[in-house]
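> call design_seq(struct)
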């Protein structure tokens, strides 16, 4: 690794990396990992960049919907907790080269947490090979297209992530496939569930939608608190609970969770890779013209 860490911000907030997700085919479950072309590429890139992920805690957000929103909520929660954190968020595919470049930049910026979204096609490509996953977050399985993968296929794809033995796992207790998912997806140190279901660890007791936002009343082991967001749909309420569950799992206090969720404004995103008092201005990454080789950020 380089001797000096550059004090720069390296945040990628790209919801337009790829506009058309490709149809995926679930990998067959096998006890032994095949040495695929992408795994070889990941191994080479990890070595080339000097294994930066070893010094950071990797949080991966997957699911059919809401990945970008949850990733940003988590990003702000961890920042409010006083940690340096970087985010790479997209509802569409993230490539191996982009991921490893991002990890290298985040390390140079001094991040100790990184949050990355993982659409099904990225899981199929096994982009997290050679990396240690600190926490895996599953939003939901809600197919929106006729050619989306089945629940069984999606579970097989997610196994490429959850089989990496993450320390913490976050699951949606309201998902109709929860009973199948909970058998395969377990955290080494803990699994936290969220939702309206009375058996959820973090329970949504009530919520309100407003013209300019929403709020949700949450109950975790008898401790109640309220989170509010600029987002104003019922699914956003679930995403708030999902991010809060991750925050609780890794030890964030409720004030950090409340302030983190409230500070994410999707209408005026200004990504930050450090606690507020240490933050620097960041220029948004290019939109349509962005490529793996051209992922520049400014100080």
């Amino acid at each position: 690794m380089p001797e000096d860490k550059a004090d720069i911000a390296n945040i990628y907030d790209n919801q337009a990396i790829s506009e058309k997700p490709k149809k995926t085919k679930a990998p067959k479950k096998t006890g032994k990992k095949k040495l695929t072309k992408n795994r070889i590429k990941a191994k080479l890139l990890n070595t080339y960049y000097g294994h930066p992920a070893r010094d950071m805690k990797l949080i991966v957000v997957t699911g059919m919907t809401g990945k970008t929103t949850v990733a940003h909520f988590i990003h702000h929660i961890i920042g409010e907790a006083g940690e340096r954190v970087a985010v790479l968020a997209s509802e569409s595919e993230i490539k191996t080269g982009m991921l490893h470049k991002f990890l290298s930049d985040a390390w140079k910026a001094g991040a100790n947490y990184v949050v990355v979204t993982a659409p099904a096609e990225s899981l199929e490509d096994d982009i997290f090979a050679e990396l240690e996953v600190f926490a895996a977050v599953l939003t939901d399985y809600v197919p929106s297209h006729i050619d989306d993968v089945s629940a069984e296929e999606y579970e097989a794809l997610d196994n490429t992530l959850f089989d990496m033995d993450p320390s913490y796992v976050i699951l949606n207790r309201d998902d109709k496939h929860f009973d199948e998912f909970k058998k395969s997806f377990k955290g080494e140190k803990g699994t936290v569930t969220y939702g309206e279901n009375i058996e959820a660890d973090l329970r949504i007791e009530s919520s309100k939608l407003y013209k300019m936002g929403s709020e949700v009343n949450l109950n975790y082991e008898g401790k109640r608190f309220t989170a509010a967001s600029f987002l104003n749909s019922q699914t956003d309420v679930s995403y708030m609970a999902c991010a809060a569950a991750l925050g609780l799992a890794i030890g964030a206090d409720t004030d950090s969770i409340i302030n983190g969720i409230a500070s994410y404004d999707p209408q005026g995103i200004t990504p930050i890779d450090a606690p507020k008092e240490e933050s620097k201005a960041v220029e948004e990454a290019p939109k349509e013209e962005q490529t793996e080789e051209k992922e520049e950020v400014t100080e």
